[in-house]
Design brief:
298 residues, alpha/beta, Arc Repressor Mutant, subunit A, D-Maltodextrin-Binding Protein, domain 2, 5-stranded mixed beta sheet, 12 strands, elongated, LysR family transcriptional regulator
Length: 298
């Protein structure tokens, strides 16, 4: 059955759904309010579904309307993505990848991956954005990004994760701290120290693993500062505002700090590549199958 729905109808519907206000939606679409109302009414008649509940005070989406809003948003992103891809091809660029990542992935994993891929695919464009783990999952599901690098315990439904790096933790201390690798015996030696840690919301599963490390060592840490940036952690440690624990991949040459490796503790953290099973970007498929999985095992 053909419902004769055009992209115009979908764009009009989505604008009203986002604003829940016909006049504001009409202004953003540069159409008249009566004309917009007619288009929505026509769309409802064609598909046989009521999309909005209207009264004199407010506009609300019906359950069917809310469902179609989510589905149509994805359809439009696919259409817009296909058009963008075609424009890149017209310019001699074979495609693009929108990539999200947590900071530690940029130390080695992403540069190595992009270098190997770009050597044979110089015509592919990459757009990179640092994002926390949960925002990456949401962005992958809505296809705002194509590929992510996260520290999560499990993949949300519809997403696929593949491990790319398993690593131990390191303590980060001011360079003049009395303890060092030779005098280190147990993390409990630091139970009276103030700790600077990544914000729990940045990665709840990573934060939980950190807490397990402390509990295993017999104490609950005194947390004086939380942040989402490793650079901030280094600055705070440099200024003797606390000590920290980071994944090994975030170790940096810095004359104002020193490190104690925690390899003897039975705790590791894993960095995963993650992508949507519904993503149809052909460049993503090549990147995953020919470079990411090949390098890090299937």
């Amino acid at each position: 059955m053909s419902y004769q729905i055009e992209l115009r109808h979908i764009r009009y519907f989505l604008e009203v759904a986002r604003n829940l206000h016909f006049r504001k939606a009409a202004e953003k679409l540069y159409v008249s309010q009566p004309g917009l109302s007619r288009q929505i009414h026509q769309m409802e008649e064609k598909i046989g579904v009521q999309l909005f509940v209207r009264d004199s005070k407010k506009v609300k989406l019906t359950a069917a309307g809310a469902y179609l809003q989510e589905e149509f948003e994805l359809i439009l992103r696919n259409v817009d993505g296909a058009i963008d891809h075609a424009r890149l091809i017209e310019k001699g660029v074979m495609g693009s990848i929108n990539l999200g990542y947590v900071g530690s992935a940029m130390q080695q994993i992403i540069p190595d991956l992009l270098t190997r891929f770009s050597d044979k695919n110089a015509e592919v464009q990459f757009n990179l954005q640092e994002m926390d783990n949960l925002k990456q999952a949401d962005a992958l599901l809505s296809q705002k990004i194509d590929l992510g690098f996260v520290r999560l315990e499990r993949a949300p439904a519809g997403l696929k994760m593949h491990p790319v790096l398993e690593e131990s933790f390191v303590l980060v201390l001011p360079v003049d701290h009395p303890l060092d690798q030779d005098s280190f015996r147990s993390l409990s030696q630091f139970k009276m120290e103030h700790f600077i840690l990544f914000e729990q919301s940045y990665s709840p599963s990573y934060y939980d693993k950190m807490m397990e490390l402390f509990y295993y060592s017999g104490f609950e840490p005194i947390v004086s500062h939380n942040t989402v940036h490793a650079g901030t952690i280094y600055k705070l440690v440099e200024h003797h505002l606390g000590v920290s624990i980071l994944p090994e991949s975030l170790m940096q040459e810095n004359p104002k700090v020193k490190f104690i490796r925690l390899n003897q503790l039975p705790f590791k953290t894993t960095l995963y590549a993650i992508w949507s099973l519904e993503n149809r970007n052909p460049v993503l498929h090549d990147l995953i199958t020919k470079y990411l999985l090949e390098e890090h095992g299937k």
